């Protein structure tokens, strides 16, 4: 399991709005050096079921599903990975965010399909109020069904996932700084 905790200097509602914004997702895809990408954002309800964002305002941001597809270069990938995918890999990620809690926190489930690679990725994300801002906690479970070398493939993929999370976090900090 890969676990990352990333901090943003903004409240959970603002971070959620960013993470579910089509334009920001485009910035995040570019930050991971995607050759091409597509983003879909779908509202899952008319209004949030949370009792508020902690600031006295009603939570009106709906639960959302964010689907991204990106083609990433594999030039830095180990041979064991490039053997399956060549010079690029298409990653389709679906993240489904729930409603805000009373303190503005949110939870999401996420799955990713990595085209041509016998690896499955699933995990959770949480937005938690922390230190005057928000912690974005991501837990990713990578598995492979390939006998004998599956563990090696998963071990090779984990640094790429961590690097992508870091790149997206840096893009988020830049996005928030621009206001």
Helix content: 25-40%
Widest sheet: strand ordering: 1-7-6-5-4-3-2
Low-pLDDT sequence parts:
47-58
Structural class: alpha+beta
List keywords for this structure.
7-stranded antiparallel sheet, 38% strand, alpha+beta, 179 residues, globular
Q: Could you characterize what this model shows?
A:
- The protein is α+β, with helices and mostly antiparallel strands and 179 residues long.
- It contains 4 helices and 7 strands.
- A 7-stranded antiparallel sheet has the order 1-7-6-5-4-3-2, covered by helices on one side.
- Helix 2 packs across helix 4 (150-178).
- The two termini are 34 Å apart.
Short description:
The chain has helices spanning 12-19, 22-31, 79-85, 150-178, and strands spanning 2-8, 36-43, 64-73, 88-97, 106-114, 119-130, 133-144. The chain is of the alpha+beta class and 179 residues long.
Write the layout of secondary structure elements.
Blueprint: E1 2-8, H1 12-19, H2 22-31, E2 36-43, E3 64-73, H3 79-85, E4 88-97, E5 106-114, E6 119-130, E7 133-144, H4 150-178
Antiparallel strand pairs: 1-7, 2-3, 3-4, 4-5, 5-6, 6-7
Helix pairs in contact: 2-4
């Amino acid at each position: 399991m890969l676990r990352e905790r990333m901090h943003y200097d903004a409240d959970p509602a603002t971070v959620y709005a960013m993470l579910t914004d089509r334009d920001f997702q485009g910035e995040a895809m570019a930050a991971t050096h995607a050759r091409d990408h597509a983003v879909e954002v779908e509202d899952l309800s008319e209004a949030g079921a949370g009792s508020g964002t902690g600031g006295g305002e009603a939570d009106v941001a709906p639960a959302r599903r964010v689907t991204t597809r990106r083609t990433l270069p594999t030039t830095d990938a180990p041979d064991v990975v490039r053997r399956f995918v060549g010079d690029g890999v298409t990653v389709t990620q679906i993240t489904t965010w729930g409603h805000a809690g009373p303190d503005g926190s949110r939870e999401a489930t996420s799955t990713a399909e990595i085209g041509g690679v016998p690896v499955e990725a699933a995990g959770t994300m949480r937005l938690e109020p922390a230190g005057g801002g928000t912690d974005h906690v991501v837990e990713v479970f990578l598995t492979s069904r390939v006998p004998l070398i599956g563990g090696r493939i998963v071990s090779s993929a984990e640094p790429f996932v961590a690097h992508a999370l870091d790149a997206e976090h840096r893009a988020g900090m830049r996005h928030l700084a621009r206001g």
